[in-house]
Amino acid sequence: MKTQVLCFISLCFLALSCADKNSQSAETEIEENVTASSYFDYSGSDDQWTGGVRMIPIETPKGTFKVYTKRMGNNPKMRVLLLHGGPGGTHEQFGNFEGYLPDEEIEYIYYDQLDSYYSDKPNDPSLWTTERFVEEVEQVRQALGLHKDNFYLLGQSWGGILALEYALKYQDNLKGLIISNMVASVPEYNKYAQEVLGPQLPQEILKEIQHIEADKDYANPRYEELLMTHFYTEHILRLPLEKWPKSIQLLFEHLNPEIYVYMQGPSEFGIIEEATLSDWDVSDRLKEIKTPTLMLGAKHDTMDPEYMEWMATEVQNGRSVITNGSHASQFDDPDTYFDGIISFVKDVDNGSF
């Protein structure tokens, strides 16, 4: 009996020892899998000591200036350059990308265009043209080493205009194009605002806005108050103003009003005739774009979602995703927004798009 007990105890210790070794082996395998990814590894890179920030020199007809970029993550196969809105906005509008793209190991790059908050500000209106901004994007691309095998360009709002213009000139440099919350025609944008969105406002509010606009009294604090409380919370970001995220608050705080008014006008309720973008329209050129393209619209956007769906059928290789959000749908419908981006980038990367 004593011998049997000793044998039983020995077998138990042997089993425990094997289990412990298997457990350690599994833990080691997990640790190796976790550390195998180089997504967060900046070691040996030129921007390691700056945490991914690079101030890139841009040559212009008025001299050389620097623009701000910040690389997030490290994936040489999938690199997304972000073009912010405005004009004169900042990369802060993409503040919650950090909550979604790193888990998918998609590299993305913040970038403030010339005359935006974190970049140089020559404050020269002769530089505020779509043609000059396109050349700026091309210089940024070259400096960052982006190319046709890894370069995805995402433009939101005014950034969508810039992205379309870039693709129409330099699409051979692109692997994928994402147009977020921007139609291909400012006249169509204005028409939608005036004929569809405007009538949705309470009539007394709409009349007051129209009266102020007729007088060109855009500096009137009442004008901004009406837009912020009755229009922006419905079509820019569908949350009460006090719940707007800090990154969006910073976007508004850091917005350059001079370039914004010069190119876009004083509000998001359409682009005024005096603004330089008032007649911008590339609808009839969409068919020239052969790069895989995602049109990312929103049900409550200032941009007509049906028009954005149509845009996806005009390009040679398009897809559309319509969120239930608004102009900043990365915040008010992030699940649909980021699922659309992630699926698109990965589908293009693996050749299934």
UniProtKB/TrEMBL annotation:
Q: Which residues form the signal peptide?
A: 1-18
Highest taxon of the lineage: Bacteria
InterPro entries, sorted: AB_hydrolase_1, AB_hydrolase_fold, AB_hydrolase_sf, Peptidase_S33, Pro_imino_pep
Q: Does the keyword Hydrolase apply?
A: yes
Q: Which GO terms describe its molecular function?
A: monoacylglycerol lipase activity; peptidase activity
Q: Where does the AB hydrolase-1 domain start and stop, copy by copy?
A: 80-334
Could you tell me the keywords of this UniProt record?
Answer: Hydrolase, Signal
UniProt keyword ATP-binding, yes or no: no
UniProt-listed Pfam families:
Abhydrolase_1
Q: Which GO terms describe its cellular component?
A: membrane
Any Gene Ontology biological process: proteolysis
**Family the entry assigns:** Belongs to the peptidase S33 family.
The protein's name:
Proline iminopeptidase
- The species this protein was found in: Psychroflexus sediminis
